[in-house]
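Budget justification, computational time. The allocation requested in the original proposal was used primarily to generate structure tokens for proteins on the priority list. As evidence of use, we reproduce two of the resulting records. The first is shown immediately below.
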Amino acid sequence: MRTRTAYSVAAVTSLALLSGCGAADMTKQASPFANAQGARTVTLSVQSWVGAQANVAVAQYLLEHKLGYRVDTVQVDEVPAWDALSQGRVDAIMEDWGHPDQEKRYVDDKKTITRAGGLGVTGHIGWYVPTYLVKQHPDITDWQNLNKYSSLFRTAESGSKGQLMDGSPSYVTNDKALVTNLKLNYQVVFAGSEAAQITQMKQFAKEKKPFLTYWYAPQWLFKKVPMTEVKLPAYKEGCDADAAKVACAYPHTPLQKYLNTDFAKKGGKASAFLKKFKWTTEDQNEVSLMIADQKLSPADAAKKWVDDHPATWKAWLS
């Protein structure tokens, strides 16, 4: 599960400001149009990582240009987004990495949130090293050899230990528990945001320096900085049930969409469209790369993708 969690009432109508920074403390944020009866308006929750922005950018473009809706976007981190969705302050979450507690509370028990199907993308978190380092030390991809190489990863922030780079402190990870339970001579150091983490990795790669990082797929950076996953103890169902005792790899998670239940029932063509929205990892990475690396605005990146892939999105409108 990858969660990035971080409530002033404000509408955020542009994804442009989300292209790099981590999500702010906006857990009470909502569009004044969310769940408005009879209004042809949709409010989408958007998280701070670029893959989530890519989903929302394309959905927003098609809702506005093909279905005639007004779309507002609200930046809310993962767990608070479930609260906002349940209360009707947003209408949809386009990419969820797995929150069983929230799913049970809001989908199964309260029934204020409705499942909207898979996004078509499978997410995976892991520990990665740059591939150029693997060529020098082939056995570094086995976690049991990490202590042997810990000195390679020392930084000013990690002191005498090797640095394991994480992103935002609001992302829920198992890394501190993994370091402790696997008895690794490493210190988890947070870069602060996805953008800051990417900047550090790109700088390390430019200088061909060693680094060990928490990272995830799908992610456009793999095309710019080839990385190889470090094999942690194999994931088995339930091995991460106790957060303090985790000593296994992260699972592979089919990413899911969720709708506010009232919107799912009364949202007309918009809710039907969002239920059908399903694309591939390659599609998402294509849009993410345009936003984060080529510096296109999310709207321009979405337009380009829509222009190039009519066969994919027309099925969502039928």
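The second record produced under the same allocation is shown here.
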Amino acid sequence: MIEKYLNGLKIKKDELTALERSRLLSEGKEVDRIMCCLDTGETLAPMIHCTLKEYYHSSEKMCELEEYIYHNFHSDGAGVSCTLRGMAEAMGAKVKYSDYNIAQLEEPALSLEEAHNAKLVDVDKDGRLPIILEGVRLVKERLGDKVPVSATVTGPFTIAAMVLGTERLLIGTVRKPEKVKQLLDVIVENNNRYIDRLLDIGVGIGFADPVSSTSLISVEQYKTFSLPYFQKNVDYIRENGGGCGLHICGTSRKLWEFIKETGIGAFSLDNVEDVEEAKTILGNYMSIQGNVPPVEVMRFGTPHDVLRSARECIRKGYDSPKGYVLTSGCQMPVGTPKENMQALMDAARIFGRYPIEEGILSAED
């Protein structure tokens, strides 16, 4: 099937819009194919002839990119991220912006000793938060009748790393745990203020929390300094009638037993983890999303590589009890070829079309 695709296989067109597909799946009804979302954002700004620095500071460019992605690839999701450093910047951190690299922390907002002075933000005035929120509003206004629109919030522990600097934070969890907790309480409140605006706009909410990965911290650190504060944000969303998902970069397997009790609706896997194992442990609690390698396959691979990797992901995840969404294991890097993005979407149309043909999922081509 892959060879046929590369030689001009005619792909059957979608029968539903992304919004219709999402709605029917949530109702437990039949749809045409599995969901497939392109994990985009500032890294793909060059596709609309825009630098990353311009993208970060323009609501219109944020929306323009989402419109481009939807109209060219028909991804099953659209949205705008607060970015890993967006909330920290609003709290006083200095961020360095470059034309073709993601933003980097230039100077922390405060030291751990100053945690009692951590800033409660005004989401309508501080940092880039107003720009990002306007970008979310524009995407919802222009694409909300066609595709599910969401916004990404940064997990509290990751925000703390951007407010203090990651090394300072990790040292602080050992030497000054109460100061870390004091800072995290402020961050939870700041996130809730931002979440209020997202709920008002009417978009879905996802969390990105890479510093909570067991690639960086122990399970005990996660249970003490990350999970309780993330849970507060999740509970706030649910109390206000919303739902949310979570993505953790890097390793997360040791955290799944705790994550499954949080009440989130979706978990997105980094490509270092296994979809089938996630289905077994998390599948009865939430939908599983992932996890084609964003660098090795999406950026530097070929359409053939994308199709093979996506087929394997679908084979492992399509029958997950609470649903499966095909996507990359993390945000796609600058320079990801359009052909590979198209191949990922087409993989959902070839291998993920209902009823699923298990024979083509186990083929060797």
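A brief technical remark on that second record: The radius of gyration is 20 Å.
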